[in-house]
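sorry for the late reply, my laptop died twice this morning and i had to redo everyting from scratch. anyway the thing you sent over, i finally got around to it. pasting the sequence first so we're on the same page, its 322 residues, then the predicted structure underneath. double check i copied it right bc i was rushing
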Amino acid sequence: MKAVVVTKYGGPEVLQVQEVAMPTPKDNELLIKVHGACISRAGAMMRSGTPKMARLFLGLSKPKNDIPGACFAGVVAAMGSNVQGYEVGDAVFGEAGTAFGTNAEFVTVSTEGVVLPMPDFWSFEEAAIMCDGPLTSLNFLKNLGQVKAGQKVLVNGASGSLGVAAVQLAKYMGAEVTGVCSTRNVEFVKSLGADYVIDYTQEDFTNGNVQYDVVYDTVEKTTFRKSKKVLTENGVYMCPVLSCDVLIPMLGNKFRGKKAKFDATGLKPVKELNKMLRELTEIIPEMGYNFVIERRYAMEDIVEAHRVVDSGRKRGNLVLSI
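ok and here's the structure:
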């Protein structure tokens, strides 16, 4: 089968498309014919091995798993002898977690892992992004930020994959939402439902007069220290990228007062991840959710796709169509 392969850390150019052996499902595994996989900042970080502390999980000198990609949507092609509840031809979606391997024509996943039946009202490409922006932002807004109706939420990086999901989910939760983005994306972020939009090329939100209950920095472009000025008394600064700017303030978090929070969503227990994904399958149709798939790439164009991710100018989601 064809697969994207990365054998060393580096820029997009380290990615290659190669013929590799077809995986064989174990007794409790599904063999999935992949139709769509998410191309995300998390995948680019896996390729580059940054931040370097992540190499404790990814591999110290090179990636432990040479086929990147965590999120997937596809069809069951075969299964192990102990698998029940699935049939060949079933459409499913989920994530492979730290095993990666979804940037390939086939991937094996455990039935005890993060895998769910794909709703018939989603396309494969839409289902493929569920475990990136929507799942991560639901976890941060609901579990870390504990967002409630009437609160003020600021989303930094509102036009990216996590930001697109966060703006829409926070509005669904009843929050007043401010999105931060570049000039070219101001109208786009408004169209997602943001009540206010700040153009970061014109204004630094950390110098503003508005206070927020939650600052969700999806792109790690500011810090807790800078954001404290615009947080309410018990406000929360959240970032999905673990760095010293988040870790050190977290160690000093008090029971009350302004807090910094981080969570590795993909490392949460499978039961919790599946529960959040089931919740998304229920609420997304109610929301009229805009998936925002900016571009679809063939496997042979994976280097170009990663260059777009690295540029920081990706709008919404990029999908690998297989």
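The chain has a mean pLDDT of 94.
thats about all i looked at so far, will dig more tmrw
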